[in-house]
Amino acid sequence: MITLFASALSAAFLGLSTAAAPEVAISSATTGETNQETHRRTVVFEVQNMSCVTCPIAVKAAMNRVDGVEQVEIDYQTREASVTFDPRRTSSVAIAQASTSAGYPAALRQD
Q1: Which CATH architecture has domain 26-108?
Q2: What is the C-alpha separation between 100 and 48, in angstroms, rounded?
Q3: Where is the HMA domain (predicted)?
Q4: H or E stretch including 89?
């Protein structure tokens, strides 16, 4: 599936037809919805105790160590972490716990 997605992405950048490539929808970062086709979920955490510009490195490393986490993006200015993961393999609770155990308490952002 990744190969097909990469082929479709390459074709799109080269201006080629993507008729044979499947469409892949990405879940919304703010709603925390799960995309059934890709089994990805993206959530945003508020992260405490980030007091210097190197703190996001520790938070990202802790969250990335959780099996099933696919991507972590940290915004130091807003003290937030956007995490994409496979909900069949982990949960937002496990990801928050990993950050908290590293000294950076994390909680799901309340919209």
Answers
A1: 2-Layer Sandwich (3.30)
A2: 9
A3: 41-107
A4: none
Amino acid at 56: P
Rounded CA separation 45/51 (Å): 16
Task: In the chain, count H helices and then E strands.
Answer: 3, 5
What does DSSP assign to residue 25?
-
Task: State the Cα–Cα distance between residues 26 and 87, nearest whole angstrom.
Answer: 14
DSSP conformation letters of 66-88: STTEEEEEEETTTTEEEEEE-TT
> Each residue's pLDDT tens digit in the chain (111 positions)?
333 333 333 333 334 333 333 333 333 344 455 555 578 999 999 999 999 999 999 999 999 999 999 999 999 999 999 999 999 999 999 999 999 999 999 999 987
Neighbour count for residue 55 (Cβ, 10 Å)? 18
Would you say the C-alpha torsion 61, 66, 67, 69 has a positive or negative sign?
negative
